[in-house]
């Protein structure tokens, strides 16, 4: 399982704190983290986040994509970030992934191992919290923080 850590310029401090906290809880985790960010994130923040990620994870990969220039209101930039990360996983890495948003804070040692093992045991393509009625009264979607299969578009074409 790959851990996708998405962030924008507003999330740099949060994702840095999360990775730092994860490292304080457990030391180096035997997982790959993909730092996923747009071209608006300052290089000094990328370097700072990368430095702690190299301590906290076995492997760090970077995925930078073009800054969202469309409608800046929620959920447009966030959906763009998710879609770009999905495409990167689908085309290059082909592994299940945890989409670890900056506001999802680990609360105990073993957090990532438990998520990974639960996903492996659950027998389902997705592992996460379903939300009802956000887009339409009868709509259902998966909260962003979840574990996704390596090919989520095959299960949910509208995800892309």
How would you portray this structure in words?
A 6-stranded mixed sheet has the order 3-2-1-4-6-5, with helices on both faces. α1 packs parallel to α2 (43-56). The chain is globular and about 45 Å long. It contains 5 helices and 6 strands. Helix content is 39%, strand content 27%. The model has no long low-confidence stretch (mean pLDDT 94).
* Strand order of the biggest β-sheet: 3-2-1-4-6-5
- Beta content comes to 25-35%
**Arithmetic mean pLDDT:** 94
The string of secondary-structure elements, in order, is EHEHEHEHEEH
Find the count of extended strands (DSSP E, 2+ residues). Answer: 6
The helical percent reads 25-40%
Shape: globular
Outline the low-pLDDT stretches.
Answer: none
SS field, number of helical segments:
5
Largest sheet: 6 strands, mixed
Distance between the termini: 20 Å
Task: Please tag this protein with its features.
single chain; 160 residues; alpha/beta; 39% helix
Summarize the structure.
This protein has 160 residues and is α/β, with parallel strands linked by helices. 39% of the residues lie in helices and 27% in strands. The model has no long low-confidence stretch (mean pLDDT 94).
């Amino acid at each position: 399982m790959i851990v996708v850590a998405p962030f924008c310029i507003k999330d740099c401090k949060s994702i840095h704190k999360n990775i730092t906290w994860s490292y304080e809880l457990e030391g180096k985790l035997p997982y790959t983290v993909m730092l996923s960010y747009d071209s608006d994130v300052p290089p000094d923040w990328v370097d700072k986040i990368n430095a702690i990620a190299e301590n906290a994870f076995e492997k760090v990969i970077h995925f930078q994509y073009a800054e969202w220039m469309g409608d800046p209101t929620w959920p447009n930039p966030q959906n763009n970030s998710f879609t770009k990360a999905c495409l990167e996983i689908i085309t290059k890495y082909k592994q299940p992934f945890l989409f670890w948003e900056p506001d999802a804070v680990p609360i105990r040692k073993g957090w990532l191992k438990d998520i990974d093992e639960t996903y492996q045991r659950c027998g389902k393509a997705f592992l996460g919290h379903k939300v009802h009625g956000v887009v339409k009264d009868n709509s259902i979607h998966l909260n962003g923080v979840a574990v996704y299969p390596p090919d989520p578009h095959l299960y949910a074409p509208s995800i892309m």
